[in-house]
Each structure stands twice: as C-alpha cells, then as structure tokens.
Amino acid sequence: MLVLGIESSCDETAVALFDSEQQRLCSLGVSYLHDGIIGHTVHSQTTTHEKYGGVVPELASRDHIQKIHAVVQTTLEEASVSKKDIDLVAYTKGPGLMGGLFVGSMFAAGFAYGLGIPTLGVHHMQAHLMAAKLCYPKLEFPFITLLVSGGHSMIVLAESLNSYRILGQSLDDAAGEALDKAAKMLEIGFPGGALLEKSALLSNNKQRFTFPKPMVDRPGLDLSFSGLKTACLNAINAEKKNETFDKECVNDIAYAFQEAVMQTLKIKIRRAIEQTGCKRVVVAGGVSANQLLRFKFSELKAKYKAEFYFPKLSYCTDNGAMVAYLGYELASNKWPEKNYEISVSPRWSLEHLSY
Ligand code: KG4
Ligand code: ZN
C-alpha cells in the first residue's frame, strides 16, 4: 500500500509517502531505507512567524495554501513514484489550527478525488505517538506515551491502535509552549525549544538559578507550567534591574528553566510507570527531540527496567511520515470509504477517536 501523508495543523507544511512493501523489505534487512518512508518533505514557516515570537494562524493558513502543492510535488519526485500509484491520502484532521487543517483537508480531498482513491483524516497526536511504531515496528501495545509538543502535553496509556486513556495533561501551557515563551522572554528567538536547549548547553553556572518543579509535590499525573513561567519572568526582571541580564545570564536561566521542565516530566513518567505497571514508554512530539529529556529518561531505564522509545529526530517535530504511517495502520484495519468530505476537528480528544 502506498500512502501519501499530509500534515498542516500548525506551522509546518509536511508531506511524506509510506510504502508498506518497502517497510517489509526493511524488516527483512534487504532495503537501504530504515523504514517504509520513501519520500519526506517539510516546509517550515519559522521565518514567517519568528518576528512575531509565535505562530500567527492567518499567516500560517496562507503559507500552507501557497506551499502545499510544491511540497507534494517534491515528495513525489524524491520517491520517484507517479501519483497514479498512490492508494490512499491521509491528512491531519485535528487537533490544530482551523485554517491550516482546512488547507490540508481540501488539498487531500481534491487530490484523492482526481485519482479516485479514498482520503482518511487522522488525529495529530495519535500520529505523533505512532511515529515511534514507525521507527520500532516491534513495539507492542500497551505502552505509556508522553506527548509533549507546542500545543499539547499529556501522558497517555496507549491500549491499542484506537484506544487511548489520558492519565494526565497540562492544566495550562503545553511543555513546548512554555519553552517557547521562556525563549521569547530571554530574547533568544523562535521556535524556542531547540534554541533554549542550545543556550542551556552554554551555561557556565548551572547553580545560579533554581526554578520550582511544577506539580511534583501534588499527587497525580497532571502538569502545569504557568508558575514556572512566572518564576522565570521574575528572575529576568530582577537581573535586568541589577543590570546583570547579559548573555551569560540568559544561558544560566535557560539551563535552569529547561532543567525544571525536563525534571518534572521525568518525575511524572516515573509515577506513570509505578501507577500503571507498564514499562514501555514512548516519548513523542516536538519536545521529545530534547537531548536532556532523553538523557534523564535513560536514567529511569535501569531502575525500572523500562524501555524508552523515541522516534528519530525528523519524526519528532511535525512531519508527514507519521500521518502517512498512521493512515496505513488504520486503513489496514478498515479500508476507508470514498466520500471526499472536507472535514476538520480543531479540538479533538485522543479518547474520542472514531474512524
Ligand atoms: O510537535 P511539534 O513540532 O508541533 C506541535 O504539534 O506543536 O512541537 C513543536 C514544539 C515547539 O514548542 C518547540 O519549541 C518544541 O516542540 N521543540 C523542542 C525541541 N525541538 C522542538 N523543545 C525542546 N527541545 C528541542 N530540541
Ligand atoms: Zn505536533
């Protein structure tokens, strides 16, 4: 099965082609590829949004409209396949920004209609967590998933392909959003997570600031990052008042902020393992690209005999590969009808999937 995956829920226009036959050859060790992805293109809108310090939804939709056709074309050329060979078009139906989702849904419907093949609108966060199965095909359900992106932070028990139980989630900002906002306050750019990570690596005084680890003194698996953000802002204001807010100071605050976020996530995942007894943990979404988070989780491996699965870096942030692969898994279970409906779900819980 050859599946075209389209992702446009936020600020990346991303397209990929998944070929199940290639995946089979990979599992036999007779393909030069690592997985079934034969074409993979990501157009990032960072330069459009960076001057605003965050994603501007209207600009995002316009850019998706302008780029989507070229991104699909590039992906087809990279894979050296004709569009006539495609069996299914999977696209992100939600959650995400309404305008971007509409662009993806409309493009998918038009493209698939022209070819007489079905479309399948998939859940963005489910796609993020299934990126781990794309990278590790032997990974079995059930597994705990930490989904940490710019829009969501949640701890989920993935019971089967279509059954997810949310064990905890952020009561305010998502982890990625908090990192982005801290980076904005520190004036180190957008998108903040990766830049904050780089800045933290340059810290020469790791003890200079200590921020509270949010929600770790309370039971349960919910998360909250707004208090941490306020602590960060207070520290910045105090340093500015003292005229000591320089490059060194930025790096030291970035270190302390990142440490507090990642340590909190580690403590919550440790609890999730203890609470569920499940020792397989997938970490997905843009923040899973963070090296400190990966290091911290590796410390839990030995103690809990837990297995951690991180998708490869290019499948951590928004991408079309995860959408194409999820489309393949869902269609293998139940082949979608051809209805070419333009349908998006900007707010859609993982607990309410209906394919
Ligand atoms: O999954 P994603 O690409 O888009 C959403 O669905 O939101 O996640 C984007 C988020 C942003 O907040 C970005 O700052 C964060 O992932 N991010 C990182 C890193 N790379 C991206 N956070 C921490 N460390 C990174 N290396
Ligand atoms: Zn995402």
Question: Can you describe this structure?
Answer:
This protein starts with a strand and ends in a 22-residue tail after the last helix. It contains eleven helices and ten strands. Helix 6 packs parallel to helix 8, helix 6 packs antiparallel against helix 9 (247-276) and helix 9 (247-276) runs parallel beside helix 10. The chain is globular, with a radius of gyration of 20 Å. Strand 4 (88-94), helix 4 and strand 5 form a beta-alpha-beta unit. With 355 residues, the chain is an alpha/beta fold. The mean pLDDT is 96. Strands 3-2-1-4-5 form a five-stranded mixed sheet, sandwiched between helices. Residues 124, 128, 149, 285-286, 318 line the site of zinc ion. 5'-O-[(R)-(carboxyoxy)(hydroxy)phosphoryl]adenosine (KG4) is lined by residues 10, 149-151, 176-177, 179-180, 191-194, 197, 285-287, 289-290, 317-318.
Keywords:
globular, 10 strands, alpha/beta, five-stranded mixed β-sheet, 355 residues, 45% helix, binds 5'-O-[(R)-(carboxyoxy)(hydroxy)phosphoryl]adenosine, binds zinc ion, 11 helices
SS content category: alpha/beta
Q: Which spans of ≥5 residues are poorly predicted at pLDDT below 50?
A: none
SSE pattern: EEHEHHEHEHEEEHHHHEHEH
Q: Major beta sheet, specifics?
A: 5 strands, mixed
Q: What is the CA-atom radius of gyration, in angstroms?
A: 20 Å
Which small-molecule ligands are present, each listed once? Answer: 5'-O-[(R)-(carboxyoxy)(hydroxy)phosphoryl]adenosine, zinc ion
- What percent of residues adopt helix (DSSP H or I)? 40-55%
Shape: globular
Distance between the termini: 19 Å
Q: Strand arrangement, largest sheet? A: 3-2-1-4-5
Q: Total helix count?
A: 11
Strand content: 15-25%
In total, how many beta strands?
A: 10
Mean pLDDT: 96
